[in-house]
Amino acid sequence: MASKDMIGRELSTGTATVTAEHVAAFARALGDDNPLYTDEGAARRGPFGAIVAPPTYPIAFMVEAMSGGMNTFLELGLNFMTLVHGEQEFEYARPIRAGETLTLTGRIADIYEKTNSAGATLDFVVMETEGKDTAGKPVFYSRNVLISKRM
């Protein structure tokens, strides 16, 4: 298992520009026809004044948030043959709006282990992504848990 000293380590910082087209495509892929995600006119008249992204939209930023972190993943010593995505959560300061560029910072939030019912040791790594607007104000936090069986 990786050292708990890795907790707090920043993986990378990048940016992502949110476009109305990408938000609409993401919403369509989910089967969500909410006009706040797809119709600029309706969204302008809505509570946020612009197209906003669906609640799970930050998953689209995972590559940007974690890019440059491959050496860290190798250092974590996770067994990629047994790696699974355990859970995902999103916390918002405000909705993500089409047209804005967000700064994304990925980091390791926690590392721990558990023993399963068969006696195998499982390694857990909690990855966090923070998205900030151009003024440096938080927009969202995303946390996901990676789980792998110890080699």
Description:
- The protein has 151 residues and is α+β, with helices and mostly antiparallel strands.
- The chain has 5 helices and 5 strands; from the N terminus they run βαααααββββ.
- It has helices at residues 20-30, 35-38, 40-45, 62-66, 70-76, and strands at 10-17, 84-92, 101-115, 121-132, 138-149.
- The chain has a 5-stranded antiparallel beta sheet with strand order 1-3-4-5-2.
- The longest helix has 11 residues, at 20-30.
- It starts with 9 loop residues before the first strand and ends with a strand.
Biggest sheet: strands side by side, in what order? 1-3-4-5-2
Number of strands: 5
Low-confidence stretches are none
Helix-strand sequence: EHHHHHEEEE
Biggest beta-sheet profile = 5 strands, antiparallel
Multimeric state: single chain
Provide the β-strand percentage band.
Answer: 35-45%
* Molecular shape: elongated
Question: Structural class given helices, strands, pairing?
Answer: alpha+beta
Radius of gyration using CA atoms only: 18 Å
Mean pLDDT: 90
Number of helix segments? 5
**Head-to-tail CA distance between termini:** 9 Å
Helix content: 10-25%
Short description:
The protein is α+β, with helices and mostly antiparallel strands. It is 22% helix and 37% strand. It has a 5-stranded antiparallel β-sheet with strand order 1-3-4-5-2.
Which properties best describe this structure?
151 residues, alpha+beta, 5 strands, elongated
